[in-house]
Design a protein that fits this description.
By secondary structure, the chain is an alpha+beta fold. The chain has four domains: 85 residues, conserved putative lor/sdh protein from methanococcus maripaludis s2 fold (Beta Barrel), CATH 2.40.420; 101 residues, Efflux pump adaptor protein, beta barrel domain (Elongation Factor Tu (Ef-tu), domain 3, Beta Barrel), CATH 2.40.30.170; 69 residues, Beta Barrel (OB fold (Dihydrolipoamide Acetyltransferase, E2P)); 92 residues. It is 28% helix and 39% strand. It contains four helices and 21 strands.
Length: 397
């Protein structure tokens, strides 16, 4: 039998041992669980995109001149063949005193050249008349046998040559007259418009019906041929341009379904992929990382009434449907981890974690398809920590 004093020493010692045993006794690991269950599963690729007009027309200046002030603003509606603006011919430049004196000297020189050409033409006419008279005399002598046949042929040749020289002299007169007119034009139209009263304009018309998308030249001023003036297009015919990573573009094919979300409307819009461009480009991401991206063009197939408020360059969220099924056995992706080169999960059975390898099918980032290894209704651990192991006691958090 223990004495009273021994009891007083044994009881605290026993309590200390019990407390130490209770402190080091293995406790269940608090975990979160999810149940394996069949549900719809969709695998998609999400990227930002923007709308654009399919047929965009850039109106340029057909001639060099001065445009009138544009009466069109962005968003205005135009009709096919409607006059958009007019272009007046350029005014001739003003001559300074030195250049004006040179122009007057060229006029005088051209006038003198014209007089010289006219005198040469008179001389050529006289030579032609003389050659014709000589041919007539020799022809009469040849008929009577007083001159040889060769002399008659030479007279005919001199007459033809004289007529050719006369025609050439007449052409020289015309050329000299045109040069004189050109020299006079420099003085006549210096500082003036080339069109009487400056009223005639070249009209620029709209090639199609649509809306004004951009205005590059608003005020009145000079323009060169080919200079952009404005852009028009039909906003009822829109397409969506999406930049996707090149590794994702491999999984996208023409005809694939795409949903356009967060565009401002209550319901997503339906679309179809029309083309995946075969050429990629480099783009720097917001984090400064170089990415290879590819343009994917999709058409809107939803009724026009649903997206009639969309315009050119509007932002949308494109979700490409890569794979979709209605009844798929699945678990959260957070329950999966790699174990010896295979996918595995911890199944909760009788209050303990049981390691089990599984075969995974499609994944969308949040859920994963289970091909084999799990049954409907089983509970798996989500976000397993390092404290969870095969056979470890667990308790629901």
């Amino acid at each position: 039998m223990l004495t009273r004093r021994q009891w007083k020493l044994a009881v605290p010692l026993l309590l200390a041992v019990m407390l130490l045993a209770w402190g080091f006794w293995p406790r269940p690991v608090l975990v979160e669980i999810a149940h394996v269950a069949p549900a719809p599963l969709t695998v998609s690729i999400e990227e930002e995109g923007k709308t654009r007009v399919i047929d965009r027309y850039e109106i340029t200046a057909p001639v060099t001149g001065v445009t009138s002030r544009l009466a069109w603003d962005v968003g205005d509606t135009v009709g096919r063949d409607q006059v958009l603006l007019g272009i007046k011919p350029l005014t001739s430049e003003v001559l300074d005193p030195r250049r004006e004196a040179e122009a007057r000297a060229r006029v005088a020189a051209a006038r003198a050249a014209l007089h010289a050409a006219e005198q040469n033409a008179h001389a050529a006419v006289a030579d032609t008349e003389f050659a014709d008279l000589e041919l007539q005399r020799i022809s009469k002598l040849a008929d009577s046998g007083n001159v040889s046949r060769g002399e008659l042929d030479r007279a005919r040749t001199r007459a033809r040559s004289a007529r050719a020289v006369q025609r050439s002299a007449e052409f020289d007169v015309e050329v000299a007259r045109y040069k004189l007119d050109a020299a006079r034009t420099t003085l006549q139209y210096a500082g003036k418009t080339t069109v009487e009263n400056g009223e005639e304009k070249v009209q620029v018309r709209a090639p199609v019906s649509g809306s004004v998308l951009a205005v590059q030249h608003l005020g009145e001023g000079p323009v060169k041929v080919g200079q952009p003036l404005l852009e028009i297009g039909d906003t009822r015919a829109l397409e969506v341009e999406v930049e996707v990573l090149s590794e994702d573009a491999i999984r996208i094919r023409p005809g694939m379904r795409v949903l356009f979300e967060r565009w401002g409307g209550a319901q997503p819009l339906e679309g179809r992929v029309r083309v995946v461009e075969p050429v990629g480009f480099t783009k720097i991401s917001a984090l400064g990382v170089e990415e290879q991206r590819v343009h994917v063009i999709a058409d809107l197939v939803s009724p026009y009434k649903q997206w009639q408020k969309l315009g050119d360059g509007y932002r949308v969220e494109a979700r490409f449907i890569v794979w979709q099924a209605d009844d798929v056995l699945q678990v959260p992706s957070s329950a999966l981890f790699r174990h010896q080169g295979q996918w595995a999960v911890f199944v909760v059975a009788a209050g303990r974690a049981v390691l089990r390898t599984v075969e995974v099918g499609q994944r969308n980032g949040l859920q994963a398809q289970i091909v084999s290894g799990l049954e409907d209704g089983e509970a798996v651990i989500s976000y397993p920590s390092d404290a969870v192991g095969d056979g470890v006691r667990v308790r629901l958090r």
